NUDIX hydrolase
Amino acid sequence: MAWTTRASRTVYENRWIHVREDEVTGPHGDGIYGVVRMQHPAVFVVALDEEDRVCLVELERYTTGRSLEVPAGGSDGEDPLVAAKRELLEETGVTASEWISLGRMNALNGIADAPEHVFLARGLKTMDATQSQSEEGIDAVRWVPFAEALALVADGTIADGETIGALALAGIRLGRFR
């Protein structure tokens, strides 16, 4: 049985998210469903240098505390590739000469409409981004061998779902998983 929306109302909205409450009929009958819609898609960047190291950023998230993640952010309505290039530079001070789209993901698809685009960045060049890193809330930029990044996922050090998904897409593209 398909879901049917009988009514919908906005309960909160800001420049980043829109939250609505839907009256629905689904496989188990009638009910209320809360949905968070991101105002713009997000982008995630797996930046891989010539030594096979992944760029990770450390920051403090209000909702979950300390986090180790790939550079990421909102597209603010831009083309996803343009946003990915901007986020990589702002968060890490790095630019890339090669960009490969790794695919699309959906965050928290049980409660959210939150599309995400993932890119692999190579041909890296370091610029200065001390000021923008501070503005972005980045505490540190770390370069970790790809295999070690996967080990950090396995031991729970990297717990951000989007980072885990982005690393998996990169690993598949790079032939690291069979």
About this structure: Residues 4-38 form one domain. Residues 171 and 177 are 6 Å apart (CA to CA). The chain has two domains: 4-38, 42-173. The mean pLDDT is 94.
